[in-house]
Amino acid sequence: MVTFFVLAGNVFCALSISGYMFLPPKLGQNWFGENEQGRVNGICIGFDMVATALGFFHSTQVIHNRSDPNKTKSDIKTLVLQQLIAAGVAMVITCVFSQSKPKSPPSAKEEKRLEEEKVNETSVTAKALLQGEKNDFEIDIKMEATNNKAEFWKYIKILLKHKDFLLIIHIASITLAVEILFEMILNDILIEKFPGKEKAIGMVGFVAIVLGFFSNISVGYVIDKTKAYKKITNITYIIALLCLIAWTLLLQFYHSFILLGASFCLFVFINTSYYVTSTTHMVVVTNPIPPGSSSMILLIVTAFYGTVISFAGSFLLKHTNALLVNISILLLMSLAFIMTLFLRKDKTY
Fold this sequence. Notes:
Layout: H1 2-31, H2 37-62, H3 69-97, H4 108-130, H5 136-159, H6 163-193, H7 198-226, H8 229-253, H9 257-271, H10 273-286, H11 291-319, H12 322-340
């Protein structure tokens, strides 16, 4: 039963992450101009983080550390029911009030792209009408689908040869995987040092991710103003590494809950700001390829890194100690930082 429950949770998490990966770049392309992409991505990712932060806070208020397993089971049922109600309300609002595209294109680049799509559709329709034996509508749909499929795979081949794009998706995947790992093991690490502080640990997670909301919006604004993607990436990783080193040293040598909580919050605050940088940077370097193709590859690579690193980190924590886990995370973040040095200079975009 426990295995089924965990599996179901992972399925829902995977579905939400796929939306998280696809939505910001697509929303920015359809609804906003070129100089607004960073802020759009920052707001989208930021509000996703607010929801995650509320999850930290909500779960620790509903599920309590009880000796009676039946009461714990009842707490979990209450939590799931409350989250289902919230998700249902969000789905209804989205289905009723949201639109996929505005009536007029938000930028000259988007207008040109839409015109090219119309030309392609007209060409496909003309070819279909030349076929006399089958139903015109059926032929039109089939040829359009074939054309879209060919275009999609053409884009995928281009992306898999694009050095900067490949660097960005690996860097972003390591960044997200490290944060997922910390979300999984934060309780285990801190409860071992500070038993009985479950609610305080939940509050640390809540504060850390709320800070990430503000960092994403702030960085999005800076990106729109400066277009300094590589420079911002390098600075983000240097500061994140310093925060991670501070967290590791404090955990090992100085057991202060306040300082540990502060160092963790600062790490997440800085680390998560790379989400908006990577999403916007990815769209810029792969232009004019539609963001759906690049987002799909990012999703696959992120899922791979997240799964492998989460399993490996949990295994190390269970069979060794927290120090080895944190050293492994430091090495991963250092590898990601080294990869940032090979990105193209900003002025070449």
